[in-house]
Structures are given as C-alpha cells and as structure tokens.
C-alpha cells in the first residue's frame, strides 16, 4: 500500500441524518431510514450524551462507509452524541503515526489483531469498559474475544467480519451432473475424483484456481494452506504455527501442504478451463472462477467477497447461476473451521461517550442497525444477536450462518498475522514455486522457515 497520505473523509452522521433521509432510495449501499422506527428506550443505559463528539477512524471510505455512517444515526438521535466518522485509505500507515503523535482518534476500527497489539503496546489505548466486555461475552465466541485481548486484558470489540472458507459452484451444473454438495473433506475429495473421471477431455476439471495479483501473487495459495492447516490440526496448533511457536516446516505444516497438494498439484484436478497447475500463478485471482460459467470448471475456493466478482447479470444465490458452499471440515460434528478476517473497535479515550459508543458497537442493536443500512451487501458480523432476516445479501446470510454456528472454529488469516517478510513475502513466493515446479512440500516449508526473522 502506498505511503502517500490521503486526506481523511470526515463526516458527521448527524449531518447525513438531517440532509440525507430523503435520498434513502439511492444505490450507495445504504438506503434505509434506520432511525424512523428506533426505540430510544434501548439506549437509556448510555445516558444523556448531548454536546459530546466521538471521533471514529477507519480504512473504510465512501461509498462503502455510507452504511456505517447511517447505522450510527440511532445512537446519535437517542443519546445526543455526534459521531465524527473519518475514513482514510491510508489508515494502516497513518493510525500508528497519529497515536504516537498524540493525535489518536477516540476509536479506531483496526483490521488486524497484530495491529491491535501494536497499538496497545504504544501505551495510548485504553481497556474496554465492563459493559463492552459483557456484550462481547454475550454475543461473540471466545475466539473473537481472544483477538481483542492483549496480555489478559480485553481492549477491542469485534465489529465486521469476513469468511474465506467458501467454495463457489454452479447449482445447475451440479444438478445436471447428479453431483451433491459435499459435507465432509472426504466427500469433497470423492467428488473431485468423480468429476475428473467423468470429464477426460483435458479441458474440464473439478477445480479452477488463480494466484495472480501483481506484486501480491501467491496470497490466494496461503489461504488454501491456512484453511487446510486448521482442518488437519486444531486451533492451538494453528496458533502456534502463526506465532512461530512451532517452526514453519513442522510435520503438521508439511502435512497441510501435502493434503492441499492432492488438489493443487494434480493436473487431473486443476486448472479447469485454464490449463494445468502451472497456470495457477499466471491466472488473475479475480478471473479464476469464471470457467464455472462455461462449464469447464466445477469448484473454486475463494472468500465471500468473490460474490461481487461475477460478471454483471450473474445471479448469485442458492437458486441462482452461482452459489457457494462451506469448504468442508474433516468432521463437522466436532468443529467447523473458518478462516477469515474482521475489524475491531479499539478506544484511545475513556470518556463516558466513548465508552458508551464502544459498548454500542459490541451490541446486537448496532449489528442490526448496520444490517438495515447495508442494502448492497457487506454487513457480515459474528454477533449472534444479528437478525439475519435483515440481511438482503445471500452471501452475507451464508457467512453469518457459518460464523455463528455452534461448531464454528474461527481463526484469522494466518499470513496476515505472521511477520510481513513471511506472510506477505516468502510464503507468497513459496506457493508460486510449489505449484509451478517439482519442489517438495518439505523443501518449500524449509525455504519459508529459513526466511523467518530472527
């Protein structure tokens, strides 16, 4: 990401409330009048905050920011506080500078747990109040609370979430071929073998994959390994791998590569409509799933955001042209591992209005206000109090269903938590080498292990 400073977008949602309600039918991603039927009795515990302002700093800018701004209106209307929303594309570079320079926002939406830890280590962040922690205990799993906790103290409440553990497919193509959506890893591998057997034209394959993304080529491959690592080991082992408590070339990691390789390194299984496995790294990740539309590929593993990558006019949904299923666990009755991401609300002030707003962000009330305001998709949350009937986007509904499942085992994208020299460096290049050459899983994990910073 460029280090060029981009002027933050500073918007008071109170201003949006007074000027924008007439435009509630716009296509900006918001569009519902979230305050029209609000019951202010739900806000009584926050007290009268009239005349106060809470600054919120995030990487989310307009138009994606618009539903967030709208979702704050009920809090403003019922408490009297003003939320000063500041969206900045350069957030990742600027937030630490602002904190160190004594210009910290009241609350920052932090997209990585590692950055939460860094900001807490600055000594400027403040622990979340008991009310915020109580909401997190009530509405979120322990996995999510752990990511907002540093050295045993809870600081940051989960805000948004994303799911990476999805497989995109064509319900029509599956039905026409008599294929059923697999519910276990073994069933998925059996289906993979059957598709390959049913189509021996050298063009149609079970899977289509693309790692290409310019200088970031390879990150898609790390997501594959992370998903498989969490399925072939367990949460604690995954955590030790990410933090280097076990080496990158540990036997469990090598096994994850070998398990993944049964798909990605088999030319009978990849790369549908595109070629053999050597085309994986030269295929743009945005285009990799498209062969599903012409019937030369049946499955494409990619995150929930990929729902927006299909050509205009593609119907995405359970009964549509394209839909997605959960990348199966080995034994879903024991655990349903999910790799994903999310944002956390970290505070740098303990003023009453700041604590009240942080508590609101951890509530079911805000999760539902955000869902009402987000008409174009992107309101995913792991908050169990979210009313999924408010979600208008089918991918959002699927993601929330997975995140709030009683057997869900959630972990953040591992490469995002590793040192950047590895997670955004040698791990990426290793995936390219591993899919384009005959390097072994042991050799490629040894290669990454040697690169780990001392």
TrEMBL record:
Signal peptide: 1-22
UniProt xrefs under SUPFAM superfamilies: Periplasmic binding protein-like II
Keyword terms of this UniProt record: Signal, Transport
InterPro entries attached to this UniProt entry: Bact_solute-bd_prot1
Source species, domain of life: Bacteria
Similarity comment text for this entry: Belongs to the bacterial solute-binding protein 1 family.
Annotated protein name in UniProt: ABC transporter substrate-binding protein
Organism this protein belongs to: Brooklawnia propionicigenes
């Amino acid at each position: 990401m460029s280090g060029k400073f981009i002027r933050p977008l500073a918007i008071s949602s109170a201003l949006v409330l007074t000027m924008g309600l007439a435009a509630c039918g716009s296509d900006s991603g918001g569009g519902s009048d979230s305050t029209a039927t609000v019951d202010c009795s739900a806000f009584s515990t926050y007290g009268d905050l009239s005349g106060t302002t809470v600054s919120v700093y995030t990487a989310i800018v307009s138009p994606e920011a618009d539903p967030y701004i709208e979702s704050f209106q009920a809090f403003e209307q019922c408490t009297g506080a003003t939320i000063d929303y500041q969206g900045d594309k350069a957030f990742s570079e600027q937030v630490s500078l602002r904190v160190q320079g004594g210009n910290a926002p009241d609350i920052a939406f932090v997209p990585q747990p590692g950055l939460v830890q860094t900001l807490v280590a600055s000594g400027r962040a403040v622990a979340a109040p008991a009310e915020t922690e109580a909401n997190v205990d009530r509405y979120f799993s322990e996995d999510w609370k752990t990511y907002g906790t540093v050295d045993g103290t809870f600081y940051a409440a989960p805000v948004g979430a994303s799911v990476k553990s999805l497989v995109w497919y064509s319900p029509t193509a599956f039905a026409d071929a008599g294929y059923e959506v697999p519910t276990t890893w073994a069933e998925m591998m059996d289906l993979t073998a059957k598709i390959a057997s049913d189509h021996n034209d050298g063009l149609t394959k079970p899977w289509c994959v693309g790692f290409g993304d310019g200088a970031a080529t390879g990150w898609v491959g790390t997501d594959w390994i992370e998903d498989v690592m969490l399925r072939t080991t367990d949460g604690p082992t995954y955590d030790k791998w990410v933090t280097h408590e076990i080496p990158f070339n540990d036997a469990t990691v090598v096994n994850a590569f070998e398990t993944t390789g049964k798909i990605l390194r088999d030319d009978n299984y990849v790369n549908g409509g595109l070629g053999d496995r050597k085309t994986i790294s030269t295929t743009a990740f945005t285009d990799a799933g498209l062969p599903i539309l012409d019937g030369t590929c049946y499955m494409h593993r990619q995150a929930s955001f990929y729902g927006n990558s299909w050509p205009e006019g593609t119907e995405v949904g359970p009964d549509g042209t394209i839909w997605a299923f959960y990348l199966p666990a080995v034994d879903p009755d024991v655990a349903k591992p999910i790799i994903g991401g999310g944002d956390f609300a970290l505070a740098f002030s303990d003023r009453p209005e700041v604590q009240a707003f942080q508590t609101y962000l951890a509530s079911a009330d805000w999760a539902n206000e955000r869902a009402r305001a987000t008409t174009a998709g992107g309101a995913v949350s792991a908050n169990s109090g979210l009313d999924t009937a408010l979600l208008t986007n089918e991918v959002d509904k699927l993601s929330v269903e997975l995140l709030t499942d009683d057997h869900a085992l959630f972990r953040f994208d591992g490469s995002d938590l590793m040192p950047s020299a590895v997670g955004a460096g040698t791990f990426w290049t290793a995936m390219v080498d591993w899919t384009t050459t005959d390097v072994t899983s042991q050799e490629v994990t040894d290669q990454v292990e040697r690169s780990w910073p001392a």
